[in-house]
């Protein structure tokens, strides 16, 4: 195409949401392309990094912050999401209570984050399961009300995961 030069970006994405919703599995699926049904609660690092190239050829070095067993709502210090360009708030579509925690997290972000450009995305994870409790329509209507990206994801069956991280990254770039 040749319209303008490619740029390099570097930013931080944090994952939030109840324990067990699949945050670590989503990160590992995205970064390593792997899935482990017995995923341990910690990946032993504050963050992992991954480089992606967008459709228009920009390079993003993404720092992905996963929680290590501090998921209990508000146990997480605001320091965790400080300076984040985006937050991916995850819930398990087969567990209604995790949907409510997701909404609490969004509320917390809206209250505490001064950066109006914070990108918020909702991962409706375990969308491969048939015992869904939270419908797609319901999740979408919430997402629309807060102007968030939303995607059905499955770390297990590998759908929506790369799409989610790419959509988030492209929105981050647009706001820069
Ligand atoms: P975290 O506590 O939010 O980090 O959750 P984990 O990533 O440790 O995932 C908890 C468990 O949920 C995993 O051990 C998997 O067995 C299961 N799990 C994670 N993602 C999926 C998914 O997309 N589909 C299904 N069916 N199970 C998943
Ligand atoms: Mg985890």
UniProtKB/TrEMBL annotation:
<dbReference type="GO" id="GO:0003924">
    <property type="term" value="F:GTPase activity"/>
</dbReference>
<dbReference type="GO" id="GO:0005525">
    <property type="term" value="F:GTP binding"/>
</dbReference>
<protein>
    <submittedName>
        <fullName>Uncharacterized protein</fullName>
    </submittedName>
</protein>
<keyword id="KW-0547">Nucleotide-binding</keyword>
């Amino acid at each position: 195409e040749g319209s303008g030069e490619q740029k390099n970006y570097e930013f931080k994405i944090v994952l939030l949401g109840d324990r067990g919703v699949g945050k670590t599995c989503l990160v590992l699926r995205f970064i390593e392309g792997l899935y482990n049904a017995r995923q341990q609660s910690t990946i032993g690092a504050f963050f992992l990094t991954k480089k992606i190239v967008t459709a228009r050829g920009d390079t993003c070095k993404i720092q992905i912050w996963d929680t290590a067993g501090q998921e209990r709502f508000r146990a997480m210090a605001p320091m965790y999401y400080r300076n984040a360009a985006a937050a991916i708030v995850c819930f398990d579509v087969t567990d209604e209570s995790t949907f409510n925690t997701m909404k609490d997290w969004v509320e917390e972000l809206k209250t505490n984050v001064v950066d109006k450009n914070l990108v918020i995305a909702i991962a409706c994870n375990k969308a491969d399961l048939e015992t869904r409790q939270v419908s797609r329509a319901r999740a979408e209507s919430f997402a629309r009300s807060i102007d968030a990206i939303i995607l059905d994801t499955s770390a297990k069956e590998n759908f929506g995961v790369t799409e989610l991280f790419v959509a988030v990254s492209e929105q981050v770039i647009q706001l820069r």
